[in-house]
Design goal:
Shape: elongated
Distance between the termini: 91 Å
Structural class: mainly alpha
Largest sheet: none
Order of helices and strands: HHHHHHHHHHHH
């Protein structure tokens, strides 16, 4: 014997059970695929609920990781992919859970690549009606294509340098187990507060909270407010003013009305109502 495997002869159709016939298998495969898609979407929702509401604490686990190891019996990465998909569609894109009925898990992953609040209805409809390949082609067609610019050798005037948007920075760091648990809890709290599943956004919220507490007057509310005002000024420019009372607002409004060229005033919001309500509390 040379150790090679003998080819397996096909089983005669006459001895194949009726539910294992080629026709039955062909009919069953899409049904199983649809069932798996439905179960995965439900699983994504449940994992998200467990994570975002810290249900694992009620079940005696100290961390989400402990629950995943003990009961989910899969990697943390797999659990994160499931919950982030649900968070991406429901929290970031603002799609009501009821509207997700009929959207397969396969197509949901494709829709999550491009969906935004203003386009949620359109992509949700496409996700429910198109095949996976057609939907992926539609998504690929919306992605920007990098342009290749070849300068002309005969051009006497040098072209102006292109101004590119600042690239996102990538950070890679390693944590001990106790540090990772602390960060996971902080990221969970930031996700609840920021209503976002994006790690960069959540990490930025954590850093701002730390700086606001650490660099101000012993973490007082007044000190934290001043920190956030200065932070917004560095982003948007100008100077922010904290108006403490309706009387103060009336005085400020009089100055603005007397010098309109010095201020930018929005006509779409009722600032006086907001100030009055704040002052009355």
């Amino acid at each position: 014997m040379d150790g090679s495997l003998e080819p397996i002869a096909p089983i005669p159709l006459s001895v194949i059970p009726a539910d294992e016939s080629p026709g039955a298998i062909r009919e069953r495969v899409p049904m199983l695929k649809a069932r798996i898609d439905f179960d995965y979407m439900r699983l994504a929702k449940d994992i998200w609920l467990i994570y975002s509401n810290s249900l694992y604490l009620e079940w005696g686990y100290e961390t989400f990781d402990d629950y995943i190891v003990a009961e989910f019996d899969a990697s943390r990465d797999r659990a994160d992919r499931l919950r982030r998909l649900w968070s991406r569609l429901v929290i970031d894109a603002g799609i009501a859970p009821k509207q997700l009925e009929g959207l397969s898990y396969t197509n949901a992953q494709v829709v999550a690549q491009v969906v935004r609040r203003e386009t949620a209805g359109e992509w949700l409809s496409l996700g429910k009606t198109l095949t996976y390949r057609a939907l992926q082609a539609k998504v690929d067609a919306t992605k920007p294509v990098a342009a290749v610019i070849t300068p002309s050798a005969s051009s006497a005037v040098p072209s102006a340098p292109l101004t590119l948007a600042p690239a996102a920075r990538k950070y890679v760091f390693y944590l001990h187990e106790d540090q990772a648990k602390v960060l996971d809890e902080a990221m969970l709290a930031a996700e609840r507060a920021a209503k976002s599943s994006k790690d960069g956004h959540k990490l930025s919220c954590i850093a701002l909270e730390f700086l606001a507490a650490r660099t101000t007057r012993e973490g007082t509310n007044e000190g934290r407010l001043r920190f956030y005002m200065r932070h917004l000024e560095t982003i948007y420019g100008g100077s922010l003013i904290h108006v403490l009372s309706p009387k103060g607002f009336d005085a400020l409004r009089a100055v603005i009305e007397a010098n309109p060229e010095l201020f930018q005033v929005s006509d779409n919001s009722d600032h006086s109502t907001a100030i009055d309500e704040t002052g009355a509390q």
